[in-house]
Please model this.
Amino acid sequence: MLSGFTAVIACTPARAQICAADRNGNGDASDEGETARCDAVTDGGSQCPIDRVACVAEPSGDYACPLGQQFPCGVTEAGSEPSCSPHACTAPDAPNGGIEQEPVVDDPGTPADGPIDAAGNCTGTIQIFSGRAVRCRTAGLGTTFSNCCKDKGKVVRDGNGSALSSAGATVAVAKGVLTGMKAAYTAFQAGATATQAASTGARALIIGIDPTSLAISVAINLMIEVLLQACDQQDMETAMLKGSGMCHEVGSYCTSKILGVCVQKARGQCCFNTKLGRIIQEQGRPQLKAFAGIGWGTPKKPFCRGFTAEEFQALDFSRMDLSEYYTEIEARAQGQIQADMKDRIDAYARTMGR
Model:
């Protein structure tokens, strides 16, 4: 209820607040138009503009919100009639009830658990086709409604890839692209056009990366697109690897909430050093009891460890469909590729005395 609108009350504007509402009923408020900056009202508070309606004058001279008495009526500083909204406002930095943020997944991959011998071989636990947990954010408030998971094209070139290597080499390529992007951002902020900035980034990129491992033209197009988005470093890494076919998507989860309403989602991924690594992980895990209870983990905490040598030797490759990978390999028979892979792992295991 609200009465006494005969006088305009001068007051200090309230601290900038925001609000969110799941208007389409899909379980979050990460779509455009479902978050808004609140308007200051003349009593010093704030009012959400989403689903706002005019208050109704009662015979007593008071005003009531037709949405329910629990929603206060107020006059916005830009308005003249009392109005109300069913959605609450909060300050982004409020200690209680502000924006809740999930930390960015920071998985460096499987750590080394043993020393390296003179030949460069690991003397600890061997992990084959080991991956790395990462995430990319879909369109939402945190990305200014840009889809950072969008397929950017095959930026990182894929070859056979060593089954025993981690995702580190491929991630190094992704980080190299990011180095170029940073140079592009610097030029962009200095007044260059998006194309000029991307050209600057391309020069930095080519200096720092073996060009045979990278699709330069796709990377340049990616730079131009990224210059106008709010995607962070891990968004870019993940999108590059995902677009190159090296990631398994575990699922979607909420990374940011306003008053308990989700305003930003992300997709958790396991990314590997090659497309082959991803395919064998996807088709090999169901064959092993060790993964039966865990699978791929959760979207928020993907489980991306590699196979042990014993687990890899237990895999039945005759039950795997590797056609997705074979189409990219020229002049090599399917049986030859399988034999080469198995022989390489067996030889390495014998060398390690396993």
